[in-house]
Amino acid sequence: MAIVSGLAWGLGYFGQPHILARFMGIRDAALVPVARRVGTTWVAICLAGAVLVGVAGIAFFDTPLDNEETVFLGLITETMPAWIAGILLTAVLAAVMSTADSQLLVTSSALTEDVYRAYLHRDAPPRTLLWVGRLTTVAVAGVALWLALRGGTVLDLVAYAWAGFGAAFGVPLPLSLYWRRMTDVGALAGMLAGAVTVVLWNNVVGGDLYEIVPGVIASAVACVAFSALGSPPRRDFVTQLAEAEAAVE
């Protein structure tokens, strides 16, 4: 169960908006292979460093820490001079802020462009969109603060959010790109089924299995079932993209 749950974290990468935004904003599609190699290498370095910190903490501290998530901070303060420790602790805050601002910007942009502008005010002027984006950023930050104050470890919060995004968007996205029979109804059903399953599994069912596993399964079943009920689109997204690129050239 632990092995399956650990490996299932990889399923969440397909549905993380703050990660996909980097690929969407790339300057040229020809740079994607290079970006893939750089990104994979950097992730491997970060994960190896995290494992090394954990192993070093086990060897260094005679008694377990009250909060095992502070092992890096404890190693810094115990082994480094004060001025070096200050720089390294600042690096931790920088990493936190980097992820936080990415999440806030992606969420604010999605709510402003994909909800407010698409459904509420299609002809909204730029100034109105600017203020809507600012207000949604403050609102999302407030919700995040409320969730943080409820308690729990950082890993628990990250795992829950990772499963929610991964199960909701991780299946519909690749199917929309590469499966010709995928429909908009199937994509919406997959997003709803994945998100609801994660919430129910985490708060009602529980257990040792990571909630992203049943969430991804439910999302895949919903995508296929509801797409099969309707008529397939005339052209898949990849074909439309190729035709658009040919027209531009």
UniProtKB/TrEMBL annotation:
<keyword id="KW-1133">Transmembrane helix</keyword>
<dbReference type="Pfam" id="PF00474">
    <property type="entry name" value="SSF"/>
</dbReference>
<comment type="similarity">
    <text>Belongs to the sodium:solute symporter (SSF) (TC 2.A.21) family.</text>
</comment>
<keyword id="KW-0739">Sodium transport</keyword>
<dbReference type="InterPro" id="IPR038377">
    <property type="entry name" value="Na/Glc_symporter_sf"/>
</dbReference>
<keyword id="KW-0915">Sodium</keyword>
<keyword id="KW-0472">Membrane</keyword>
<feature type="transmembrane region" description="Helical">
    <location>
        <begin position="209"/>
        <end position="229"/>
    </location>
</feature>
<keyword id="KW-0812">Transmembrane</keyword>
<feature type="transmembrane region" description="Helical">
    <location>
        <begin position="42"/>
        <end position="61"/>
    </location>
</feature>
<dbReference type="InterPro" id="IPR001734">
    <property type="entry name" value="Na/solute_symporter"/>
</dbReference>
<feature type="transmembrane region" description="Helical">
    <location>
        <begin position="159"/>
        <end position="178"/>
    </location>
</feature>
<dbReference type="InterPro" id="IPR018212">
    <property type="entry name" value="Na/solute_symporter_CS"/>
</dbReference>
<feature type="transmembrane region" description="Helical">
    <location>
        <begin position="128"/>
        <end position="147"/>
    </location>
</feature>
<dbReference type="GO" id="GO:0005298">
    <property type="term" value="F:proline:sodium symporter activity"/>
</dbReference>
<keyword id="KW-0813">Transport</keyword>
<dbReference type="GO" id="GO:0005886">
    <property type="term" value="C:plasma membrane"/>
</dbReference>
<dbReference type="GO" id="GO:0015824">
    <property type="term" value="P:proline transport"/>
</dbReference>
<feature type="transmembrane region" description="Helical">
    <location>
        <begin position="185"/>
        <end position="203"/>
    </location>
</feature>
<dbReference type="InterPro" id="IPR050277">
    <property type="entry name" value="Sodium:Solute_Symporter"/>
</dbReference>
<keyword id="KW-0406">Ion transport</keyword>
<keyword id="KW-1003">Cell membrane</keyword>
<protein>
    <recommendedName>
        <fullName>Sodium/proline symporter</fullName>
    </recommendedName>
</protein>
<keyword id="KW-0769">Symport</keyword>
<feature type="transmembrane region" description="Helical">
    <location>
        <begin position="81"/>
        <end position="107"/>
    </location>
</feature>
<dbReference type="GO" id="GO:0015193">
    <property type="term" value="F:L-proline transmembrane transporter activity"/>
</dbReference>
